[in-house]
């Protein structure tokens, strides 16, 4: 993995024509090409694992991830009330799960009494259709706590889901029944979820952000609350705190600026 990180550094510093720096976006394309090649090697049993699939492409230092501002979150949820996306948006903001992790979540992995859930798999869209897959790394397989509000909406959703099955004559759900699914219990398309979200943003007058922005919003809230970066990294399933720091660097910068202000006040005795 260190070899790939070093390669990223070389690309960004001198990977372009005549040894000029390569743009982060272009370096990202090179990384994804390598990832596909290594994945092919894994499928043909030439390699045991795809290390390029563990380490993400280099992030552009000038690009910032999309988030909802703190004051926008309650407004967005209020406008979504009564909409099919209200529940999944609420849970995503409360947990920071990836889209596929949300859609792959089974009720057997949710402990409402213990206010926690286990991330054990993800749902992905392939050319052959939908499929469940295990987390790429051991860090992706994790147990996270649920805030009280999320427990409440999930309990209500569970009750309504069971009532709907009875009304449709579907009987008891399968042992591996999904939390977020179609009315008949089948998996939801991740791509359709993203499209439905964009459509809802337009029709309901929500901030024009991608669904993935809800995960980043969760992280930004944890950083603003001064949660330790190691704990944040574990909660959202990053391979290491370094990944969290790289992706959300600008959030930490603003937090650090606040820390500097607090220290100055302490030194001057004005706190």
Could you characterize the architecture of this molecule?
The protein is mainly alpha-helical. The protein has a domain of 149 residues: hpI Integrase, Chain A, CATH 1.10.443.10. Helices cover 51% and strands 7% of the residues. The chain is built from eleven helices and five strands; from the N terminus they run αααααβββββαααααα. The chain has a three-stranded antiparallel beta sheet, with no helix packed on it. The chain has a two-stranded antiparallel ribbon with strand order 3-4. α4 runs antiparallel to α6, α4 crosses α8 and α9 crosses α10. The longest helix is centred in the N-terminal third of the chain and has 20 residues. The mean pLDDT is 86.
Blueprint of the fold:
Layout (H helix, E strand, L loop, with lengths): L1 H13 L9 H20 L28 H9 L5 H10 L3 H5 L6 E2 L4 E4 L2 E5 L2 E5 L8 E4 L2 H20 L22 H15 L8 H12 L4 H8 L4 H7 L1 H20 L3
Antiparallel strand pairs: 1-2, 2-5, 3-4
Helix pairs in contact: 4-6, 4-8, 9-10
N-to-C series of helices and strands: HHHHHEEEEEHHHHHH
Q: What's the CATH topology name of the domain at 72-220?
A: hpI Integrase, Chain A
Question: How helical, in percent, are the residues?
Answer: 40-55%
The major beta sheet can be summarized as: 3 strands, antiparallel
* Secondary structure tally, helices: 11
Number of strands: 5
By CATH, the superfamily of the domain at 72-220 comes out as: Intergrase catalytic core
Class by SSE composition: mainly alpha
Strand content: 5-15%
Task: Give the averaged pLDDT, no decimals.
Answer: 86
Unreliable residue stretches: none
Strand order of the largest sheet: 1-2-5
Q: What is the terminal-to-terminal distance?
A: 45 Å
CATH class bucket of the domain at 72-220: Mainly Alpha
């Amino acid at each position: 993995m260190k070899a790939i990180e070093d390669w990223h550094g070389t690309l960004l510093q001198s990977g372009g024509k005549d040894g000029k720096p390569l743009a982060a976006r272009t370096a990202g394309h090179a990384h994804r090409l390598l990832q596909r090649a290594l994945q092919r090697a894994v499928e043909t049993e030439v390699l045991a694992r795809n290390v390029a699939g563990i380490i993400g492409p280099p992030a552009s230092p000038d690009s910032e991830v999309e988030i909802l501002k703190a004051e926008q979150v309650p407004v967005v949820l209020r406008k979504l009330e009564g909409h099919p996306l209200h529940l999944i948006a609420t849970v995503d903001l409360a947990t920071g799960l990836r889209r596929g992790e949300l859609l792959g979540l089974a009720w057997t992995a949710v402990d409402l009494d213990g206010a926690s859930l286990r991330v054990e798999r993800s749902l992905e869209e392939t050319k052959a259709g939908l499929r469940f897959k295990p987390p790429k790394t051991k860090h992706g397989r994790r147990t996270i706590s649920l805030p009280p509000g999320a427990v409440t909406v999930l309990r209500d959703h569970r009750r309504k889901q069971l009532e709907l099955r009875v009304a449709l004559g579907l009987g008891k759900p399968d042992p591996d029944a999904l939390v977020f699914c179609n009315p008949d219990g089948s998996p939801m398309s991740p791509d359709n979820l993203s499209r439905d979200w964009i459509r809802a943003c337009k029709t309901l007058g929500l901030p024009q952000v991608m669904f993935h922005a809800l995960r980043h919003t969760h992280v930004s809230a944890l950083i603003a609350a001064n949660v330790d970066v190691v704990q944040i990294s574990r909660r959202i399933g990053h391979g290491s705190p370094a990944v969290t720091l790289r992706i959300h660097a600008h959030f930490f910068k603003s937090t650090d600026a606040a820390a500097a202000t607090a220290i100055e006040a302490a030194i001057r005795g004005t706190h």
